[in-house]
Every structure is written in C-alpha cells, then in structure tokens.
Design a protein that fits this description.
This protein is of the alpha/beta class. The protein is 40% helix and 15% strand. It has four domains: 107 residues, Glutaredoxin (3-Layer(aba) Sandwich); 198 residues, NADH-ubiquinone oxidoreductase 51kDa subunit (Rossmann fold, 3-Layer(aba) Sandwich); 84 residues, Roll (Ubiquitin-like (UB roll)), CATH 3.10.20; 80 residues, Up-down Bundle (de novo design (two linked rop proteins)).
C-alpha cells in the first residue's frame, strides 16, 4: 500500500496516522511503499523457514535473484505452511512446492490465480457418511449441553495448537461466563514445520466445520470468527464455498466471520490473535482470555485451534473410547514427509521408520525438533523417548504443535540454531524487552562467533544467562521458548555454537557431534 493510502485510511477511520501506520508495518504480509516508488511487475517470495533452508532455499533464491529479469524481485519470506514439499515459493496467491529454477521462472511469468481448492470430502459426501447428524441432534434437543460437555471431558481431548489445555474444561469456563459469547478459531499455524491444519482443511473441511458449530452450540456463542493465516489463500475460497452450503442447509445458527491473518507468528498466541481480530497489532495481552473483559470485543471468548475442532465430533461420539492418536507434521530428511496420524506417545524413531519410509537416501538420523522452532533440538540418542505432553521437558524439548523436523549428519546444529533465532527475532512483537532485545542479541552473538575472531566468541555462560532472562521475563510463550534452541545446543551438542579455542568461530560440527 502507498503512504497516501495510509493517510486516507486514517482520515476515514478517524484515527491518528501513527495508529494506522503501526498496524500496517506490524504484519509482514503488508508492505508500505513511498508514493513515488516504482514497484517491479512481479515479486517472488521464497520461504526461509528451517525445512526450506535444509532443502536448498538459500542457493535457489540466490541463483534466481542473479538470473531473474529486472522487473522481478526476490524476497525471503516466513514459513508458508508447506514444509512437506520444501523448498516453497509464492507469487501473490500462487504457491509452488519442491521449487526449482524452472518453477520460479514459470511462477514469475504466470498471472496470479486464486483457485478454490476442492476438498477430498465435500458437503454431500460428508453428509452421506453421517456428517452433521450429531449437530442436528444437538439443535433438535436430542443431546443436552451437559451430556456433550461430559463426553468431551471423558474423551481427554486437549488443545492441539501447542498448549494442550483440556478442551472440556475450557468450554466449561467460557460457558460459565455471562453472555453473549464468541467462538474464535485459531487457524494461524505459523510455527515452522507445522502444516496439519492445512492438511485437514484441504482433505475433510466439514469435519472441522461441524466441530466448530458444535463448540459454538455448547457454549451458546452468537458469533464465530475464523482467523486463517494469509498464506492459505486457497483455503479462504474453500471455506467460503463450504460455509455457503452450510447456510443453505440451515445448519448455521450463528453469524460466521472469515478473517485473514496478515502474517505474524505471534498471532498464533491466542490473546495476540484477539488483538489482531480487533484490527490492532498482534501484541499478547498480559492476562488470559478469561474473564469476559479479556475476550474478543470485551465478550467471553472460546478459543480453539482448527485441529482441536476437527476431532470434536469423534470425541463426543466416542467419549472415553476416543482414539488415543495424535497428528504430526513431519518434514526434513525423511523419505515420505507429511501429516501422520499415529499412536499418541510414539517415539521419533518409530514415527520415522514406520510411517515416513525411513530417512531420505544418503542421510543418517542425527537429531530432531519434536515441536517445530520452539520445541528445542534433541539428539538421535533420545529418539526412543515418547513424544507427548510432559515427556520431553526433562530433556529440554517440547512437543508443542507436534511438528517433527528431522535432521541428518549433513545438517549443522550451529546453522540450525542461527536459522531459528533469526526467525524468532523477526517474529517478536517487540512489546517486552526480554524478547525483543534478547532475540536480536542472540542473533548477534551467533554471528560474532562465526567471523573467526576469538575475542568475539561468547562462552556457554553468556548464552545461558541470556536464555534465562528471556525465559523468565518474557510475557508470552514466544519469548519464553525462543531460547530453547540455544539451551538444547549447549546441553546436547557442545561446541556447536560455542567452539573451543582450537576452532575459533566455527559452527561446522555435524548434528550428531
């Protein structure tokens, strides 16, 4: 957007230009340019997330930038949620996976398209398989709220966006608040390595939509807001179409709003998402979304992520017999990456060998990230540990969003840590000093250790002190978990980021060293 557009928008909204400018420059999917600036005809974004970097995105971006026409520019972008087909690139609303030079040339010459994705299971197929029967029973009074809440509790369903809060308990807390109430759906899975929400929306969206409507019915929500990350333009069209079918069938009993995220990892934190939905910067609130005054527009707000709602129907139907399974987004050095629905508490080794076809050719298993960027880095010697809530913390890891990124002997832990810390520095909202300054300082410390000057190499104590301050003093999970890669490197991979006197500035040790 042009600078003059910000001025006009501020005038229309009766806001100060500063208020409009701070929002426009907060989200990385927005770009503010000078009125007189001449923009290139085409912009190619190439993902710089860890799985894409491992797949050669850096070399691909450099080669294409050197050879591309003058009217095409190349910009590195945050994770695009397609880590199973890295490296990924986009132009406008068109995305390509397994990108090559030829693919980028084609992307630069093609006109922008916003085709609607056709789900594997559409509305008619879903209904034919018993879909929406449960919702109709609830609407008709054949099911009571108390019984449904009890079934959710019995199922043990937990939040699957990372925190793992018991779903039934969250529903009960919101239902106990004085109405009117709102349901906010978190579809902003921006954690590098995470793409399971996209997978479920592409394959069986009505299972999610029925779960969403069941949750809204259970807490008597009058409105639903779906916050979908902007990197999924094909899913906006899909949801728009399928929501239209629901309305036509008379199944939508409340007002449903589909909202685009504008690109900010922090908006995966639920209170930051509420701020974003209200049209502000995604700054986390310093209290949870209870009681009502901390919710969306000052109203009691139930917040569930896409995958949690996807399993609501099955959790209600089965109760205590709900399948003890878990979805993992798997990327990195495996033969068959993708979303894997596997037994809960599976080990990384079993997941790789039994569900991913083993390691990719020429790669030996050396290390893994069990929960994406914030889940820490663990060595292959811990790959037989169960991956579940509360099982990896003793080793410095977290399952989080269950995004397994697999590393091999060809991946250097120093480079992995550097990529992750640059990600956190870029995505920090800047509200609190420990996170804003701490992530930038970590990037600077890692860079200093690579330039070959022994006087610029920081020791373990310096990194540990920085990590402690960030974890203890940051106000939200981003800053608290941002130092996990550093802490894991110090604990499990000595020398990877703090080389000894004989290796000044080196970050070359392999992942298994």
């Amino acid at each position: 957007m042009r600078e003059r557009h910000l001025t006009a928008l501020a005038d229309c909204l009766r806001l100060s230009l500063a208020e409009v400018y701070e929002v426009a420059t907060f989200y990385h999917r927005f770009e503010v340019v000078a009125d007189e600036a001449v923009l290139p005809a085409r912009t190619i974004h190439i993902c710089d997330g860890l799985p894409c970097q491992m797949a050669g995105a850096d070399d691909l971006a450099k080669a294409f930038a050197d050879a591309s026409p003058d009217d095409v520019r190349v910009i590195r972008a945050a994770c695009m949620g397609r880590c199973d087909c890295a490296p990924v690139a986009s132009s406008g609303t068109t995305y390509i996976g397994n990108a090559t030079g030829d693919g980028l040339n084609a992307l630069a010459s093609n006109s922008d398209t916003d085709a609607t994705w056709q789900p594997n299971v559409d509305f008619e197929q879903y209904q034919a398989g018993g879909g929406y029967d449960l919702l109709r029973q609830c609407y008709n009074g054949d099911r009571q709220v108390k019984d449904v809440m009890s079934r959710i509790d019995e199922s043990g369903l937990r939040g699957l966006g990372g925190a793992g809060f018991p779903t039934g308990r969250k529903w009960g807390l919101v239902a106990a608040e004085a109405g009117p109430r709102i349901l906010a759906v978190n579809g902003d899975e921006s954690e590098p390595g995470t793409f399971k929400d996209r997978h479920y929306l592409e394959s069986d969206p009505h299972r999610f939509l029925e779960g969403m409507l069941l949750a809204a019915w259970a807490v008597d929500a009058s409105e639903i807001y779906i916050y979908l990350r902007d990197e999924y333009p094909h899913l906006r069209g899909l949801l728009r179409n399928e929501l239209g079918k629901i309305a036509k069938a008379g199944l939508g009993k409340c007002e449903i709003h589909l909202r685009r995220g504008a690109g900010a990892y922090i908006c995966g934190e639920e209170s930051a998402m509420l701020e974003s939905l209200e049209g502000k910067r995604g700054l986390p609130r310093q209290r949870p979304p209870f009681p009502s005054q901390a919710g969306l527009f000052g109203r009691p707000t139930l917040i569930n992520n896409v995958e949690t709602l996807y399993w609501v129907r099955e959790a209600i139907e089965k109760g205590g017999d709900f399948a003890d399974m878990r979805s993992f987004s798997v990327s990195g050095r495996v033969r068959n990456p993708g979303v894997k629905f596997v037994p809960r508490g599976i080990s990384a080794r079993a997941l790789i060998e039994d569900f991913c076809g083993g390691m990719a050719s020429g790669h030996d298993f050396a290390a893994f990230l069990p929960g994406g960027a914030s889940g820490g880095i663990l060595p292959a010697t811990l790959a037989d540990e169960p991956m579940d809530f509360g099982t990896l913390e003793q080793h410095g890891g977290l399952i989080g969003s269950a995004a397994l990124i697999v590393l091999s002997q060809h991946d250097q832990i120093g480079g992995v840590v550097d990529n992750l810390m640059r990600f956190f520095a870029h995505e920090s909202c800047g509200q609190c000093t420990p996170c804003r300054v701490g992530t930038e300082k970590a990037v600077a410390m890692l860079a200093a250790g690579k330039d070959g000057d022994p006087d610029l190499v920081y020791d373990d104590t310096a990194y540990e002190d920085l990590a402690l301050v960030m974890a203890d003093a940051s106000i939200c999970g981003l800053g608290q978990a941002a130092a996990n890669p550093i802490r894991c490197a110090l604990r499990h991979f000595p020398g990877a980021i703090t080389p000894g006197p004989s290796e000044p500035g080196s970050t070359e040790p392999g992942a298994g060293s």
